[in-house]
Amino acid sequence: MSDLPNIGFVGLGIMGRPMALNLLNAGYSLNINDKSRSRIDVLAASGAVVCDSPMQVASSSDVVFIMVRDSEDANQVVLGQSGIIHEIRPGSTVIVTSTISPDSVRNIADRLAQVNVDTLDAPVSGGEEGAKKATLSIMVGGKPEVFAACLPILESIGRNIVHLGPVGAGTIGKLSNQVIASVNMLAMCEGLTFAAKAGADLPRLLSVLQAGTAQSWALDNQAIKVLERDFAPGFMVSLQQKDLRIALAAAEELHVALPGCSLVHELYKSVESEPGGGGLANHAFVRALEKLSDVVVSADA
Amino acid sequence: MSDLPNIGFVGLGIMGRPMALNLLNAGYSLNINDKSRSRIDVLAASGAVVCDSPMQVASSSDVVFIMVRDSEDANQVVLGQSGIIHEIRPGSTVIVTSTISPDSVRNIADRLAQVNVDTLDAPVSGGEEGAKKATLSIMVGGKPEVFAACLPILESIGRNIVHLGPVGAGTIGKLSNQVIASVNMLAMCEGLTFAAKAGADLPRLLSVLQAGTAQSWALDNQAIKVLERDFAPGFMVSLQQKDLRIALAAAEELHVALPGCSLVHELYKSVESEPGGGGLANHAFVRALEKLSDVVVSADA
Known about the structure:
2 copies of one chain form a homodimer.
Chain A: E1 7-10, H1 16-25, E2 30-33, H2 41-45, E3 49-50, H3 54-59, E4 63-66, H4 71-79, E5 93-96, H5 102-113, E6 118-121, E7 124-125, H6 127-133, E8 136-141, H7 144-154, E9 158-165, H8 169-197, H9 202-209, H10 217-221, H11 223-227, H12 237-254, H13 259-272, H14 286-293
C-alpha cells in the first residue's frame, strides 16, 4: 500500500492527458473521467481507473484535478448533476488547472468549502509540450497550507510553481500573463510588418531587435516562425481568443480598460475568419496585420 | 601628427555632448558647433575646436556627426544657409545619428552625394547613460565600404553596431525598434493595471511574469520602476512621442497600418497633458491607463 494520496483527473484533452500520464508515472493511483471515452484508452492501459462520472472520480480520490475547456464545463464537472460535489469526501482538495473566469473559480471554491473541501486555482502555461515534459509553469491561488500540501503533486506536472495569493489569484496571474503576452505579440508583428513594408532585411534586423529595448519572449521565440511562415500550433488562435475573452470579461467586471488587449482580440477575428484560422499557432496574428497593409512578413521577401 | 581623421560634431545636447566627449577621449581632433554656445564649454575645455557654423565644422573635418533634435534641424544643419553642404570636402562622410524621418535622411544623402560626400544614417539607442558610457546600440544604413571605414570611429561611442542596408535602413531599424518597444510597454502597463485592480500581489506576480511568455525588456527593466513610482528619466515621454510621430508618418507614407503604435501615441497625450508630463520617463505611460481605470499600480497598494 502506498502513502501517496489517490488522485482524480477530469478532462483528458490535449493538456489533461499528458498531465495525467505524468501523475501516473510519478506513482500516484489515478481515477479518470472524460466526456469522450476515446481519450482514456492510453491512460487506462497505463493503470488508471476509468470512472463513469466526475462524481465517481471524487468518491475515491483525495485530490481531484479539473482540466476542462471553459467555465461552463468546469461548473458542470463540479456542480452539475453528476458533479464532484455530490460524492467528494470532506478534507479533499480540488485543483482547477483550466483557465476559467476568476468569478467561476471563486464560486466553485465557495460551494466546495460548504462541504469542507479546499480549492486551488492553478492555471498552467507552457502548452502541450510543457504538459508532456512536465515543465508547465503553474500560478496558484488558495490557502497557503493547501498549496504546501499539494506542491509535491504539482511538481510531478510542472516546474515553475508559484503561490500568488488566495483562490482566484492564480487565475488573475494567468490572465495578466495572457494580456501582456498577446500585446507583446501585437508589438512584434507590428514592428516586423512595418519593417517588411519598408523593405528591411528582416532576419538581420530581427537579431538586432532581440538585443535591445524591443526584446520580448515573443520576439525571441515567435518572430522567427513568422519569418519562416511556420504557423503550426503550439498554442492555437482559438484558445488564445478564449483566454482573451475571459480576461476582457474579468476586466469588464473590474471596470479596468484594456485597450491593447481589446485591439488584439478584435484583430484576431480576421485570422479566425480564414478557413482553419482558429487552429493556427497564435503568432498567425501577423496575418491580420498583413491583410491590413497588403504585405507578407517573410524571410524570403 | 595623427593619422586619425578629423571629426566634426554638430548638435551637443543631452546625447551629443557625451558622444563628442568620447570621440575626444579616443584621440580624435574635434570641430564642434551648436546653436547654444553654453553647451560647448566642457568640450572646448577638453580641446575641441569651437566653430561658428556647421559649414565651418565641415570645412576642416573628414567625418561630420549630426546629432540634432529632428528632421527640420537636420535639414538646416546640412542644407541651410550656413549648412555643411557649402564647405564640406569631396570624399568626406556625414553620419546622422539623430532619429529623423527616412525620407529626410535619404534626401540629405542624395544632396550630399551630388558633392561627392557619403552619408550614413546611424540612429542610436541606449539613452544618456549609453551615450556617456559609450555603450550605445547603433543601427547603420549606407554603403558597406563607408560603414567599414567609419566603424572604428563608431566603436568609440557605441558597442552593438550593426549595418542593416543602404541609407535609410538604419532609421527603419530604429523606428521598428521604437514601435515594438512602445507597444511592449503598453502590454506591460496594461497587464499590471489589470492585476492591480484585481488586487494582486504585484511584486510577486512580476517575478512570475518575467519567467514566462509575457517576458520583455520592458517587463524586466521598467515594470519595477512603475511599481516603485519612479518616473525620473531616462528616455523622456516627449522624445518617445517624437520617435512615434516619425514612425507613424513613415508608416503613413508606406501605407502600413500600426494600430497598436497609434494607440500608444494617442494615450501618451494623456501623460503629456499633465504639467511636466513630457519630461517624465517613458514608462509614465502607465499613468494614462491608471487614469482610465481609477487605480494606482504600486508595490505598496
